[in-house]
Structure formats: structure tokens, C-alpha cells
Amino acid sequence: MKIGVKILPKNEVLDTQGRAVEGTLRAHNRSVEQCRVGKYVQLEIPETDESKALARAKEITEFVLYNPLIETFELEVVRR
Amino acid sequence: MKIGVKILPKNEVLDTQGRAVEGTLRAHNRSVEQCRVGKYVQLEIPETDESKALARAKEITEFVLYNPLIETFELEVVRR
User: Fold this and answer.
1) What is the pLDDT of residues B17-27, one digit of tens each?
2) Rounded CA gap, B46 and A33, in Å?
3) Which CATH architecture fits B2-78?
4) Could B41 and A46 be called an inter-chain contact, meaning their C-beta atoms sit closer than 8 Å?
5) A23, A53, B48, B70: most buried, per Cβ within 10 A?
6) Which ipTM was obtained for this model?
């Protein structure tokens, strides 16, 4: 089962990449209100049960993918 | 309206970060079948119409966020 992990910098954290994108868009008259840049990880987990796959993805994310001090994450089941 | 952009390296492209995560998980008895690491960008777009917001996000992504030679992307409306 494919699980997507969306990782974003916390709101309190200065997101330098997001600021850079905001600046570039402003300079090209394509301003947005906010832009945050993080990581997207797709895990193919050998598990057919959705809740078990999500539990394993959560464990892996906390173990090795995200930094709890400065980031938050969200999981999703990727169908397709 | 908040739009999420999920960017992943194409399957044909060597994904060094993904391989590194796979190796680490294997070494800790938490093997997964595959891991791909990409970028996640959240854009806050000043637009209330969903299809207009998605169209602007697509334009921005193609303009500045992703590299069509080595990456693919997918858009999503973030509700919340």
C-alpha cells in the first residue's frame, strides 16, 4: 500500500525556501498570500490493511523522516 | 484557497534520497518496498474559485517549482 507523507515547516519557523518562492512570484506579478516549502515522501509499504499501513508509515516518519522541533507532518493513502 | 503541490522524481530517475531512506530502514528491520523523496509546497492563493485556484497553482508550479525533465507533480485542494 502506498502512503504519502507531507512534511512542512512549522508556522513559527522561518521558511527560507518559501520566502524565496514568494519573492520570485512577486517579482513576476504572480503573488500568492503565502508559500511554504517542505518534503513529500511516498512509501510503498508491504501491508494490505489501511490502518496497519498508516501506523507503519507514522512510525517510519517519526523514526527517520521528520524533525519534530521544526516540522509537522500529515499522512495520506495514495490510491491509484 | 490553499493548494498543495506534491512533486516527486520520475520513476526513471535515480532518487538518491529515497535510496538512502530505504537503506536506513532496512538496516533497522523496518524495510519498505520502495521510498521516493520529493518536495511538498503549500500555496495560499487569493482566489475563492477552486478551478481558478488550481489553474493558478499549476501555472506557478510549471513556472518555478518543478523540473519537468526529472520530476512529476500533482495538485490537491487543502481543506481545513
Assistant:
1) 999 999 999 99
2) 6
3) 2-Layer Sandwich (3.30)
4) no
5) A53
6) 0.93
